[in-house]
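HUMAN: Mind making up another protein with tokenized structure?

ASSISTANT:
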Amino acid sequence: MSPNGEHAKQTILITGLNGYLAGRTAELVLQAGYRVRGTVRNKLAGQKVKATLCRLGYSANNIDVVQISDICQHEALELAADGCCAIFHLASPLAEIWTLSPSEVIRVAVESTASVLSAATKTGRTMNSVVLVSSAAALFDLPLENRLYSEKDWNTTSEEIVDRDGDKAGGFHAYLASKTAAEKLFWKFRDDHRPSFGMTALQPTYFIGPPLIPWKTSGDIPYSNSDFWKVVAGEEVPGPMMIYGDTVDIRDVARMLLWSALNPQKADGERFVCSSAVGGGQAIADILRKRMPSLQVQRGRPGQGYSPDYKPASGVGGFDFNKAVLATGEDWIPYEQSVIDLAQFLQRYLP
């Protein structure tokens, strides 16, 4: 695929267009010269994304919003994918892991992935690439071991725990199991069918960075950005995040999605950990006290709890992100830039 010449207006399908990552991904796809077609469960949410992109200068003619109430239904997604050159599968039952049963969370994740692959197959010769946004959650068992995890690792226990404990397995195992099961199906499909299109899976850690569309209120800020909001709001400097502290800017994940689609000869059959930095509440506070002194950021314990280069500390569970850097030839957005950009965005929620 090329954003130039006869391919300039090829269309890329993005599932879950109204999601945190999807907005920045759509922006990057349009910037690269492609059309965007996005699926949403709620048409109004999708139209809001379209309107925002239009305000940024992109043509409404290059943005389609398709309402699909149940992405697990193959026929609707096959129609949405018709004529597309790539599919980015971003839709995921994240918000529902605490409300749906663990088995249902897994079912939705697996069946939606199967639906995407069916749609890609039915699309025929126009389809060049399918990129799955999996998760770092597919790489480890709980609790984490004190080592760096890589693309060679897999979660091996959460599906069994859900099978054994049912609803008592809880949201964490539901999420880990759903991501693992969906990605396993993804790779089994490739092994069984050897499709003509490229297949790539990304394993991002906690998302950070400014969204395309503001959250409605500070209460809607996702957990992965909650430490940033607490620091910007002048609250006590928070301690470590749950499970691990590794983060990645959503703009970098969007870049990896597009790179994977445009470079199937390098990306086909590959998994890529997307993780750039380990900071945390104290690192955020130290950066903002220095770079944005007008904020009322608490001092905390300066310099404590993180490495000066924001890399994973030795002897602590974390993620090896070097494969993606070597493959693309491009490093991640510097952590301090992500912190500043997100803090500037979050100022709109201050009283």
In short: The radius of gyration is 20 Å. The longest strand covers residues 198-204. The mean pLDDT is 95.
